Amino acid sequence: MTVHTHILGFPRIGAARELKVALEGHWRGEVSEAALEATGKQLRARHWALQKDAGLDYVTVGDFAFYDQMANHIQLLGCEPARFNFDAPQSPQSPLSRYFKMARGEDTHAAHAGCTHGHANGHHDHDASNYALEMTKWFDTNYHYLVPEFSPLTRFSLDSSRLFDEVAEAQALGHQVKAALIGPLTFLWLGKEKTPGFNRLSLLEQLLPVYGALLDRLKQQGVAWVQVDEPILGLDLPNAWRSAFESTYWQLNQVGINILLATYFSPLEENLSLTCRLPVAGLHVDGIRAQHELVSVTDWLPAHKVLSIGIVDGRNIWRTDLDAALAVLQPLAARRNGHLWLAPSCSLLHAPFSLAGETGLDGEIKTWLAFATEKLTELSLLKAALENHPDTTSLAISRLAIAGRRASRRVHRPAVAQRLQTLAPSADRRASSFPQRQAMQRARLQLPNFPTTTIGSFPQTTAIRAARARYKRGELATAEYETQMRAEIAHAVGRQEALGLDVLVHGEAERNDMVEYFGEQLDGFIFTRLGWVQSYGSRCVKPPIIYGDVQRPAAMTVAWTVHAQSLTQKPMKGMLTGPITILQWSFVRDDQPRAKTAQQIALAIRDEVADLETAGIGIIQIDEPALREGLPLRRSQWDAYLDWATRAFRIAAAVVKDTTQIHTHMCYAQFNDILPQIAAMDADVITIETSRSDMELLTGFGQFQYPNEIGPGVYDIHSPRIPATLDMVRLLQKASAVIPPANLWVNPDCGLKTRNWAETEAALKNMVDAARQMRVA
């Protein structure tokens, strides 16, 4: 039997987030471009060595990025948007500085933070060259990619040597290289037309020769295999896109290099036979999410083609049941005459780096887990077993861990099961309709038109982070820590009062992360020390692990929120994370349906909502930025998911009286195709991210005649750029054209945790001024 092992991608941030540290130092001007490049080179070499040491037959090159792999391809394919003016002779920039400008935008108002006239350095405030590329979720993951922009003027050329340089690096280290690319059709599909009526698929004809030149150059470097990712084959594609695959890969196949077409995240369904017939040398399929299709793929795929099976879960952290995996693989290997490639289901980008540093993790639960590095070992164990020289000791250890998890009494809580069984059918319904609630809430809150607020978090300063770190290490007593956090809350409240915001927040100084903070206080969760996963750029999150039934032992936010409310006469929002976001942004147990876990979390949040209301808090925000992210990739599965997901939100929220206003927040996703279900959440106010799309996302809400109140974000908090008042007025005017002005709120796109106070105050001052101008317009 001939078995090969490889991966589709590896975490690039580093075991100790070395890339994050270097990136943020570079953006602050403390780390040179050369030093940043050196850090990247060190990380790549280290990660390739891990793959080789684990016995993988190929190391994967091309998965590394300083910000995002899609952004890499924008430069590689020579299609940086013309609006950035990179060709301007008066301001030559290095490829890396251009790359970061696309990713982060540019603040042209650094020296004019208080400017409200819309001009600085010769540019109007909404000069398109200042805006970062739009960012949205990578399929149904919590990873964000930068969206390519396409127009009839878009041109392609082979314009970056970075990939080829990295291939040479790996080869110089003695590695057998498999290069990784995003496929041309997926690249175009994930982009966005910037010209009305333009069809980005029409760019394929001029894009393919560039891909051909790219493949030819890799061939000249001696690369034997190129992994070309086309995950859109797992989507419901229009016929024009489906029919483009055969001619595309016929043309690319002429280069004469082995193409391993990679699909993941979804079954192929109606695209299965098409995919198997494509003129490529091999096919990778997701054996976790599409296990039921493996026999069909094996039957359809011609015998001379390589079949790569993603048998190790690349998106979760549970140890692979090796016996179950072998039971799947052995008959497939027999059908393939003993020839098979093994891999994780998708890139390991979505998994933490390694369990090696988790010295404080619960010993029993640790045996149930496998992070990215451990998944490399699992591939080697499966390969050895298939080739009839199994590592019996390692297989026995794995078998004991799998059995131990199934039998553990820590997983199930009878009280949680009982509460779910006795939950009333009406538990997800508010007492009155929205118009009735709206009248009562307006009478209670007495807010002006275009009320101003923020999404929840304020800058996490060095002092805040240091205090939390000292507290976690046991160097700061609980009373002293709480005193410091109350002072930080008072500071945030005072600054909001001075700015003139209408609805305040406590700033979340005590919170490390919007999911981790809650998970730490809920039963059924466990946390790692170094289990970081990249969300975008340098932003990393440390997802909780849901290993068992969830319940809330005690109040989680009430004391902090009540303290904040005591400092002001203005309404103070209680800030919570919703059940679907906690579910999506955690590593979720795989031994029961996700819907059941979501309902357990919803009941825990419901208890917190009830306690906040009892404490006198009149506005409670339950953030659900991940609701759209959790949507299945196939439309046939949408209704079932949306039914249980929106019900979970309503269960969490519907415990309050009509006079209590429920807010929710969503960001960086396309909402227009699920607007009826968003309306069915029945939140009194929804705030959404719209500034990067120039309010484009709001059009659907207007066409749908969204019935409740809405706060379209008027500036992008992920960019250091300070927006001018007139620019925000312009956006609010656009919003007022599609949403009744009486139902509009004024707020940033997202939380302000990652910004500094100077940026925050300058932007919020302009935002408050914009709202005041709208009130007198």
Keywords:
single chain, about 775 residues, TIM Barrel, eight-stranded parallel beta sheet, five-stranded parallel beta sheet, 27 helices
What is shown here, in short?
With 777 residues, the chain is of the alpha/beta class. It has two domains: 2-105 and 129-407, TIM Barrel, CATH 3.20.20; 436-776, Alpha-Beta Barrel (TIM Barrel), CATH 3.20.20.210. Helix content is 40%, strand content 12%.
Show the helix and strand layout.
Elements: E1 2-5, H1 18-27, H2 33-53, E2 59-61, H3 69-76, H4 95-104, E3 119-120, E4 123-124, E5 135-137, E6 144-146, E7 149-150, H5 162-172, E8 177-182, H6 184-189, E9 192-193, H7 204-220, E10 225-229, H8 239-253, E11 258-262, H9 272-277, E12 282-286, H10 294-300, E13 306-312, H11 322-335, E14 339-344, H12 363-366, H13 372-386, H14 392-407, H15 414-421, H16 434-445, H17 462-472, H18 478-499, H19 516-519, E15 523-526, E16 533-536, E17 539-541, E18 545-551, H20 558-565, E19 573-577, H21 579-584, H22 594-614, E20 619-623, H23 638-653, E21 661-666, H24 675-680, E22 685-688, H25 698-704, E23 709-712, H26 725-736, H27 757-776
Parallel strand pairs: 1-14, 2-8, 7-9, 8-10, 10-11, 11-12, 12-13, 13-14, 19-20, 20-21, 21-22, 22-23
Antiparallel strand pairs: 3-4, 5-6, 15-18, 16-17
Helix pairs in contact: 1-2, 11-13, 17-18, 22-23, 26-27
Report on this model:
It is a single chain. The protein is of the alpha/beta class. It folds into 2 domains: 383 residues, Alpha-Beta Barrel (TIM Barrel); 341 residues, TIM Barrel (Alpha-Beta Barrel), CATH 3.20.20.210. It has 27 helices and 23 strands. Strand 16 and strand 17 form a beta hairpin. It starts with a strand and ends with a helix. About 2% of the residues have low confidence.
